[in-house]
Amino acid sequence: METASLASLCSRISSGGTPSRKHPEYFADEGGHLWVKSQELVDCPISDTSEKISDLGLAKSSAKYYDEDTVLIAMYGATVGQLAILKAPATVNQAVCALCVDPEIADYRYVFYVLMATRHDLTIQAAGAAQQNLNQGLIRDFEIPIYPLNKQRRIANVLGSLDDLIENNRRRIEILEEMARLIYREWFVHFRFPGHEDVELVDSHLGPIPEGWEAVPLSELVTTEYGYTESAKEEPVGPRYLRGMDMNKSSFIDWSAVPYCPISDRDREKFKVDVGDVFVIRMADPGKVGICEREVDAVFASYLVRLKPVDARLLPYYLFFTSSDDRYQGWVTGASTGATRKSVSAKVMTEPPVVLPPQDVQAQFVETVAPIRGLLTNLLEQNGVFTAARDLLLPHLISGELDVSGLDLDLDPVA
């Protein structure tokens, strides 16, 4: 099988930059330029980013612009080797290397999939005492299997058809997330819950709340527990091992992507994850919240705090949405300590009061959002099946073990 260096397949390989955080005008709350950070590279297309930079930020930093269909690879730390494809023009930070694939020589999707299949061979070269680091030289010189352009496109189309299904489900999941969040805010922030017309608002130390509702310190409603300390493993050496990075970017937990860990029987029972458990990240990204919504063989990591309702008046879904909402998130952000790595203790994260509606109102809310969250969970499980099929096919297609020459495929690149 022939191989070729990435440098020979690309018209441009370079990394980006980060505008100074000391100048808020370098960042844009609305509009601005998409700015990709390494933690946003999760082996999928990127059409939006969590932060944008302004024209001034672009001019005052080493951030560079890249076109749609650019392949991105993370160069540093925990995300090293993670990949993405730009689906809109964007800038990137200094921890991201951008590969502008020459369309006359290679299919950008084929390069993306080959890097996914061979990333271990690349990242094993990464150096760094405290963390793995790739550099542009290693990336430029890295050799990948190469076929004629026609065959590259056939391989990319087979794998891309599965990724299209995954991406369609991701978009549906985002809509379902937003639907459930808006229902929560309508009922419990704006107090337009069913029957609200007949309920007066009364004063509380959290502001006006419906009569008969309470403002109660969270510490009176839940118990807290820190998680288990161990190293995550990709091999199934024990139960799934839920970490902060598995729940800090969404309102759901994709269990198919959660790694494993070894653990004793005694600790496994102590740290076992149950349906309805709510988890709050206490370090690095404090305050982000996740909930277990299905039966799973899993334990949780020490960077997380488990919240369990001990008062029958508090239902788990209400606790989850309340902890995810702006009021609680703002409070945790303000209470977090640490100059370089923010953190918040279990004691501190349960200090703030929360609005506690009557249980029947909470139960109505659960009846309304549970089907939405159930559909979301089903779509996640579908994506786990599609991802497993893609990952199974990937090495066989790249190695040539599976012949795609006889397949009736559209050879035009997928838009």
Total discrete domains: 3
In CATH, the topology of the largest domain is named: Adenine-n6-DNA-methyltransferase TaqI, Chain A, domain 2
Number of helices: 10
Largest sheet: 5 strands, mixed
Strand content: 15-25%
Tell how many strands the DSSP assignment holds. 22
- Helical content band: 25-40%
* Morphology call: globular
Poorly predicted runs are none
Strand order of the largest sheet: 2-11-8-9-5
N-end to C-end Cα span: 29 Å
Supply the CATH superfamily name of the largest domain. DNA methylase specificity domains
CATH class of the largest domain: Alpha Beta
Question: On the 0-100 scale, what is the average pLDDT?
Answer: 91
Identify the CATH architecture of the largest domain.
Alpha-Beta Complex
Core attributes:
Helix Hairpins, 5-stranded mixed beta sheet, 10 helices, 34% helix, 3 domains, 415 residues, Adenine-n6-DNA-methyltransferase TaqI, Chain A, domain 2, 22 strands, alpha+beta, 19% strand
Summarize the structure.
The protein is α+β, with helices and mostly antiparallel strands and 415 residues long. 34% of the residues lie in helices and 19% in strands. The mean pLDDT is 91.
Task: Give the SSE map.
Layout: E1 3-5, H1 6-9, E2 10-15, E3 27-28, E4 33-36, E5 44-46, E6 51-53, H2 55-59, E7 65-66, E8 71-74, E9 83-86, E10 90-92, E11 96-101, H3 108-123, H4 136-141, E12 143-145, H5 149-188, E13 201-202, E14 209-210, E15 214-217, E16 222-226, E17 240-242, H6 265-270, E18 278-281, E19 289-291, E20 298-300, E21 304-309, H7 316-324, H8 326-335, H9 346-349, E22 353-356, H10 359-399
Parallel strand pairs: 4-10, 5-9, 17-20
Antiparallel strand pairs: 1-12, 2-11, 3-6, 4-6, 7-10, 8-9, 8-11, 13-14, 15-22, 16-21, 18-19, 18-21
Helix pairs in contact: 5-10
